[in-house]
Amino acid sequence: MSQILSQTVAPPSIVVDHVSKRFLKRNSHSFKEAFVGWIRGKKVRADKFTALDDISFQVGEGESVAIMGLNGSGKSTTLKLISGVLEPDSGRVLTRGRVAGLIEVGAGFHPELSGRENVYLNAAILGMSKDEIDERFDEIVAFSEIGEFIDQEVKHYSSGMFMRLAFSVAIHVELDILLVDEVLSVGDAPFRAKCSAKIKELTSRGVTMLVVSHNTNMVKDLCQRGVVIKKGKKIFDGPIDEAVEALGV
Amino acid sequence: MGANAVPVTERQIPLTFGTPIDLSEYDVPGRGRGVLDVFRRGYLLRLLVRKGTATRYRNSVLGWLWSYVKPLSQFLIYYFVMGVILKLDRNIENFPIYLFSGVVAVNLFNEAFGNATTSIVDNRALVKKIYLPRELFPVASTIIAFIHFLPQVAILLLVCLLVGWTPSLVGIAGILLAVAIVLLFALGLGIFFSALNVRFRDAQNFVDLIKMFSTWTSPVLYSWVLVQEALENHSWLFTVYTWNPLTVAVELFHQGFWAGTTQPPAPGEVDPSILPGFGVALAVALIICLVVLLIGQLTFRRFERSFAQDL
């Protein structure tokens, strides 16, 4: 393993080192297709499509960085590589401390369970222990403003209530690195403001944050630095205002 | 700007800038230790199992009664066809208990295997979004299947007690061993096919085939004595038949439940409760279970890397 030099002031929390990710465009989706394709001498495996091409950047402890780019540029793929959902084909992704993602809030919610059961389930999915959840449960419910509906089945919630509760769980997870993917469009304006405030509070406590968003106002509000990706390649890394310009929208 | 561009804000006080990073402090996201990781996330596993059992019969009137109704109706149809029409009733003492103890064992296998196979695809929302040790899902499915097996055992025990059952310690240890064999075997196969199922949904249908075979390739509806007679000229085939982990498990169930309700055989007669070469069969079955689990885990690890892409 070669050495990686630090590029940030504080020790980096996230290191993305020459990472490439290729996706397969599969030509066969069943045993039969694969077999028939193999008999006919067609390509059974798949064609490749490069989603990320030799991307490198680091995020220092306590820094908040935005990843920007147009649709399909590879932003979400980057976030998924850091969360561990995907693995890079080449290069290295390294993280220090506990990573939690506000990626697709509510993915772990079950509509048939009550709000309370869902809080426990989702918090455990995000890596919390029973004691930690017990300790923070009231805080989570208070933040979500769900109130007495907490013991109702989640399927009876309005979509706003659902998102507020899901977001509230995610934001209360004990974490060192927070990954945020287009979720701050949650709820109404007052709740959004509350979420921004909460996120700023977390970063002021030294939580490292990586945001993916198209919302340039929000990104300017939350982040100091921006990384711009275009067609899988990094084209800019620097102060957020310049990054927004580099995005050219 | 180039790849090494340094933002203005960071040029001021370079505390660590340019120094080598101590890699030992870092984790590689998404790398787990396979099934072992499941035990480190014990609390989450418990919640997943609770979720599975709690939501299974939501919105159904009969609810948990279905866990009794299904095996009972299955038992009745088998008893009617095999016992009454094909007259196996006459050759096997207490045939209903013989039948039901086998059915219960195979049901546990089918339920655990089937659920584990679809577990990854069923939880695609999570698998795609958040990193978890994905083995959690097949393991949780297997445990849920075990919980649904308990009411069936309760019925079986009740019937055995009504008929006059003399339980033996060895028999009960055998039952526990059989449950372990069935769960290990189902989990190993389930992990294997759950990974395969992500890319090829054919796996699910193939598993349905195996489930159908499982009832007939072990002595559930008939006695092994008939198989031995039929395979008289191919004794190696009969040996292979006895090595099937399900055959071993079903026989252990018979030994534990059914044999305790029957008269010991007259001297010189074949004891239908003792499978020939059982010791070897048991050892081979245990080895098969472990090998299947190992292969399943290795395959799972290989396929796991592309789960999020393929779902």
Verbal overview:
The complex is a heterodimer of chains A (249) and B (311). Helix content of chain A is 35%, strand content 28%. With 249 residues, chain A is α/β, with parallel strands linked by helices. In chain A, the strands form two sheets. In chain A, strands 5-6-7-3-8-9 form a six-stranded mixed sheet, with helices on both faces. In chain A, strands 2-1-4 form a three-stranded antiparallel sheet. In chain A, helix 3 (115-125) crosses helix 4 (130-144), helix 3 packs across helix 5 (159-171) and helix 4 crosses helix 5 (159-171). The longest helix of chain A is centred in the C-terminal third of the chain and has 16 residues, at 189-204. The two termini of chain A are 40 Å apart. By secondary structure, chain B is mainly alpha-helical. Chain B has one domain (32-310). Chain B has 13 helices and no strands. Chain B has helices at residues 35-40, 42-56, 66-85, 95-122, 124-129, 136-163, 169-199, 202-216, 224-230, 235-243, 245-258, 278-304, 307-310. In chain B, helix 3 packs across helix 4 (95-122) and helix 4 crosses helix 11 (245-258). Chain B is elongated. The relative contact order of chain B is 0.13. The interface between A and B is large, with 59 and 54 residues.
Task: Summarize the model shown.
Chain A has helices at 31-39, 75-83, 115-125, 130-144, 159-171, 189-204, 216-222, 240-247; strands at residues 12-26, 46-60, 64-68, 90-95, 99-103, 177-181, 208-212, 225-230, 233-239. With 249 residues, chain A is α/β, with parallel strands linked by helices.
Which H/E pattern describes the elements of chain A? EHEEHEEHHHEHEHEEH
Query: Within the largest sheet of chain A, what's the order of strands?
Result: 5-6-7-3-8-9
**What would you call the structural class of chain A?**
alpha/beta
Number of strands of chain B: 0
Strand content of chain A: 25-35%
Please identify the oligomeric state.
Answer: heterodimer
Low-confidence stretches of chain B: 1-14
* Helical amount of chain A: 25-40%
